[in-house]
UniProtKB/TrEMBL annotation:
One of its GO terms (cellular component) is membrane. It is a multi-pass membrane protein. Residues 45-401 form the ABC transporter family G domain. It comes from Trifolium medium. This is Putative white-brown complex protein 30-like.
């Protein structure tokens, strides 16, 4: 995660299981990253005073997830002291505030835990929700400070007078601001503080080519299984195929189109389904999608060239068709390249399980459609869109010639 130089880093209790020295080293490293332009947010339970002072801003949450304080660390003690919750001597401030918010300790000034979120709303001039107005009244009633009483009463009256249309207008403005932020995030570029130079497409292509090649070598067992299945399919279909002058072996070629399409599609799905999450992360970091796709397609070209040879090594010599080995090989290369591209699309747009289902279903359905009678204009157009039709015609023409 750190190598990608993210602009936002969210951590969940990073100091859990660490002693004070290790926790201090960790937060010093994170603070150094923050100075480089990385926004770092984390949840931390019971930090020491040294770790507490390392943060820029801090959030204290009351029960129910309501904000009791959100602001600079330097001002938190002053704020709580101003509302009657001072920090006792020789007590860690964050521990003391957390104990107050959890109800383990009661403030001596008469401040209740339930009113702390409302006090924060009034302190910042935020509107108080209708179901919490009674807490605002409790704050205003016993206050001895005339200024605070006036401010609280004024805020309460303003909140009470808010009509439905005012709230509707506020919601509308909030939605407009949210949509504006989304549009700016898409079309506007934020200032890059990392001083990182993104490699060009050619350099990224070379890097991805090496990475995908290593991945293929590590998956050599899967590749061997794919070739073995093609070899077995070629042997079985070559034995069952009967070539004669009337049919030119059309039935055997029909089975060939279905079996090769099915096996090659399922194998090609692995190119984009296994690392989809990794691609999303890398694309968010600014990699070139073109270089990523071309590298995988280039590596898969080896399979596109060799798989027809493996299949024909058994099918051709067992079925003994009239056409030459070269013509059958050319047709199968085009077929494998076509179904590989279709598998890419299925892997990108579908989850792994539906993509496998479509990879099995499409070759069978499209082959059946390609062999139907073309009685209507719709069927003529539909047959023209099916790749098995062109593959079968190429095989039959090669045999006829």
């Amino acid at each position: 995660e750190m190598v990608m130089e993210p602009s936002l880093l969210i951590l969940d209790e990073p100091t859990t299981g660490l002693d004070s020295a290790s926790s201090s080293l960790l937060l010093k490293a994170l603070r150094r990253e923050a100075l480089e332009g990385v926004n770092i947010c984390m949840v931390l339970h019971q930090p020491s005073y040294t770790l507490f002072r390392m943060f820029d801003d801090i959030v204290f949450l009351a029960k129910g997830g309501l904000t009791a304080y959100h602001g600079p660390v330097k001002e938190v003690e002053e704020y709580f002291a101003g509302i009657g919750i001072p920090v006792p001597d020789r007590v860690n401030p964050p521990d003391h505030f957390i104990d107050i918010l959890e109800g383990l300790e009661k403030p001596t000034s008469g401040v209740t835990v339930e009113t702390l979120p409302v006090r924060w709303m009034l302190h910042n001039g935020y509107p108080v929700p209708p179901d919490m107005l009674h807490l605002a009244d409790q704050i205003a009633a016993p206050s001895s400070d005339a200024t605070n009483v006036t401010h609280t009463s004024k805020a309460t009256d303003e909140t009470s007078d808010q009509s439905f249309f005012v709230e509707l207008w506020e919601d509308f403005k909030s939605n407009i601001r949210t949509q504006k932020d989304h549009i700016e995030a898409i079309f506007l570029r934020t200032k890059d503080l990392s001083d990182r130079k993104t490699p060009n497409v050619a350099r990224q292509y070379r890097y991805f080519l090496g990475r995908v090649g290593k991945q293929q070598l590590r998956e050599a067992n899967l590749q061997a299984v794919d070739y073995l299945l093609l070899l077995v399919a070629g042997a079985i279909l070559g034995t069952l195929t009967k070539v004669n002058d009337e049919t030119f072996g059309s039935l055997g070629y029909t089975y060939t189109v279905i079996s090769v399409s099915l096996l090659c599609k399922i194998a090609a799905l692995r190119s984009f389904t296994t690392d989809k999450l990794q691609y999303w992360r890398e694309s968010a970091a600014g990699i070139s999608s073109l270089a990523h796709f071309l590298s995988k397609d280039t590596i898969d070209l080896f399979s596109t060239i060799t798989k027809p040879v493996v299949y024909l090594s058994m099918f051709y010599y067992l079925s003994n068709p009239r056409s030459s080995f070269e013509s059958n090989y050319i047709v199968l290369v085009c077929l494998v390249y076509c179904v590989t591209g279709m598998a890419y699309a299925l892997a990108v747009f579908f989850q792994p399980s539906p993509a496998q289902l479509w990879s099995v279903l499409l070759p069978v359905v499209m082959t059946l459609i390609a062999k139907q009678n073309r009685d209507t204009a719709f069927m003529k157009i539909l047959v023209q869109l099916c790749y098995p039709k062109w593959a079968l015609e190429a095989f039959i023409i090669a045999n006829a010639e």
